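#dry-run=false #mode=assembly
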Amino acid sequence: MSLVLIDILIATVPLMLIFASLFAFTTWLERKALARIQNRIGPNKVGIPCTRISLFGLGQPAADGIKMLFKEDIVPRGADRLFHLLAPILALIPAMLVLCFLPLEFPWTKSLLPVQAFLLDGAVIFFFAITGLNTLAVFMAGWASRNKYSLLGGMRAVAQMVSYEIPLVLSAVIVVMMVGSLNAADIVKEQTGWNWYVFSPWGLAAFVIFFIASLAETNRSPFDLPEAESEIIAGYFTEYSGFKFALFFLGEYIAMFAISGLAVTLFLGGGDGPGLAAAPWLSVVWFLAKIFALIAVMIWLRGTLPRLRVDQLMGFAWKFMLPLSILNILVAGFAWHAQQQNSKTITVITWVISLAILYGTASGLNQLNRGSVRPRKYKYAE
Amino acid sequence: MSTAAAPNYELLQQDGLETSLLEVSMGPHHPSTHGVFRMDVKLDGETVVDLRPVFGYLHRNHEKLAENMSYLSSMPFTDRLDYFNSMSNNWAYALAAEKLIEVEVPERAEYLRVIMAELTRLVNHVSLVGFFLNDLGALGTPLMYAFREREKILDLFEQASGARMMCNYFRFGGLRNDVPEGWLERAGEVVDRFPSFLDEYEQLLCENEIILSRTQGVGNLSRELAISAGVTGPMLRASGVAYDLRKVDQYGIYDRFKFRVPHTDGDTGDCYDRFMIRMLEMRESIEILKQALAGIPKGEIMGNAPRVFKPKPAEAYGRIEGPKGELGFYLIADGTPKPYRYRVRPPSLINLTVLRDMCLGGKIADTVIILGSIDIVLGEVDR
Amino acid sequence: MSILGGGIFKGMKVTLWNFVLSYFRRDRLTTNDYSWRPDGDLPQGIGDYPKEEGEQLSDTTTVTNYSRNFPMLLHDGGEPMDTVRCVACQICERECPPQCIYIEKDYDENGKYIKRPAVFDIDVSVCMSCQICVEVCPFDAIVMNSQFELSTPDRFGGLLVRRDDLLKSNDYYHQIHPEEAAARDQKMAVEKAAKEAKKKAAAEKAKAAAEKKAAEAAMGDAE
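#status=ok
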């Protein structure tokens, strides 16, 4: 029995450690990148403690973590203490849990039994089921704080997360349809040799929809309405201080990693990349590199775009992304059948037709929803 | 004050469902109310049903203080009225006081006054656009770009007057001191680099779909309401009235400069219009600055104002087209060195009276944007 | 709106460009401690700022030689109270808008007013750096210093700067505000020359009048 326990620990603990340190690195990266975009330098003073060596501020996440640990834990009077405590924990656990199902093949864990168990047959479905728990955590946080602003934030967050889950799942359906299996390892195996799904029109459309929906799921800009700093101060985590706030933060970033990991698995080929034949451990490096590329794009978007209003957000999900993703499934289905014919001309024609259909629908829906919105010209008086 | 109807309470009893309104006080401590300003908002879900602005948190007795001090001593306090545009406030006060005594302002001083005022207009509009986008949620990026330009202009102010924001530079009959050597060249450099910054800004913002959908159709102000409420400045021009005091009054030497006044048709007076009008006004200010910097003569800075400022009993109203609207000072002199009555016409306060009409029926997120587009500074609203 | 989402892409291009350029061109980091100014123009770090002997500065940012912060009294070198320019006329006390200056004249043993201030206090927490005291002083005795690191944990008297702390030499003034100090010195020299010329003319006129009177008296005696 104890051997199994050791196996489990060997399989899971490095994963948690790696992702926790990646989280710390990502907070540093985000602050520096946002600062450089805004023409200033990010944190650059905190380095190795007790020395004057400031490694470009890499010690900042550690300093922040220690600070959060020491802060006073304030719970508002009249708030529901149990749910106030449970909410951040519930925000963190699903995110960490789904990290196990990413097809990261660490070399030391190949033959361990628990790892074989992680390679579920229904990994993708399991993933979506578990990330749904995030919604519950956010709502609990908003409700349990006994604060009108938090309540507003919590309601908005729930509405947003629920409506954006549908395009998220529907775009993943395309890949599952093409592969024919829900197993993450199978999906990655299908895409070896630069055969990634993002390089086809329906895959590209699905990837874009998945990416935008994942921004909404993790409450990142431009969908960060629940944590809108300028209107409702901090939304559902206004009343959280100290370590609980750090747990929310951790949960959000790990969810970002998890969803990016799923996007990489489904669309960007998992650990696929050059040099795999020589060194199989490079697949982990490529996987992480691709996750970081997606996170860099998320940070870039955060630095550029203002946020959407809540009814526009909902309109975007239900009136634009949902029809487009359903159409995408149809187009992908036809394309798959066409590709079964194994003929080059048919493939090319299918590509062109699907590109035209998808782009035309997207533009058409855009016109329908927001046709009257365009830049204007002004008059001058002498 | 506002002409909108009272909220319709029957709305809440529909479908047999009895709900109540959520009352939120977007209180004085708030990241985006541009100062200590409170709005008591009644919400039905996300829609604003009633709005009551509460201000006065920054009242500092400016007008009463001035009655106990000499005329020159309240010049530094005018800096602190609208703390972004200290030079413009100084000019308005100097204009009002110069109407009480006979003094001629030398040419060089007039040119420098125009240069300072237009630089202030640039500073104000660029900061406002930055803060407006900050309210929209673009986490500080446009704000930092705007502040990059503002820093250069504030450095110019520091070299001329000694202080970046609270300049205290204007005097009755001229300016306090001449600008140092090389200042005009440096100002020319800043002005030359400004249009490329504006181009970059427009590329970042003006076709961004998110900004377009969030600001168009939001906060409509009709032309009739704007005129009847006494709204002035870019808000009035965005609602369709081509009225600019620099063209109407032609105070100072503005009649010598060629510039245009952007305005709209009056169909839509929404936040997008106000934002764009300010961007276009910045370009016009650059035109004026180029002409002024090219044509400035050498000469003295101070006219022959009396050493002790003791005007005969009279009253005067001096007004300028400040960056936020018409800033006016009303002075009643009674023969002593201290004014009998000193009154400020604050453009921010008067523009704020139409806030409720613009916000009713919109969402709460729009309230913040509308407030941002009115461009208030609490120092002026509360004095 | 030719491409779907074209405006957003344009914005992203601008931000990326800014990101990349911020590494190569320091003058884009304008909001960072005057780092965009050309080197050699200003003090660049802590300790470069000109200090009066015995003074410490812990500034982390630098000020220019045009900045003004709080007033200081000037003396012309040597023992401060021997060459202090202030004569305690109290004009600045009257004109100060927030009324932060408190002056007491100095009297010698016989109770006669000597032209020095015995007490000259400025409450720096009230002073708003408006420079009106500098403008109205007829003796060029009070000018603006640019040091601003004056914070203290003492709430009750820590920000009341007394006469001896306010006294700084004219050389220090030349160090921190060279152009202004030079202009002021020139103005004082011109005024002094004009006064000397007037005194000389008056003395000559008095001498001529005295000679004339002596000549008339001599003539009267002779008669």
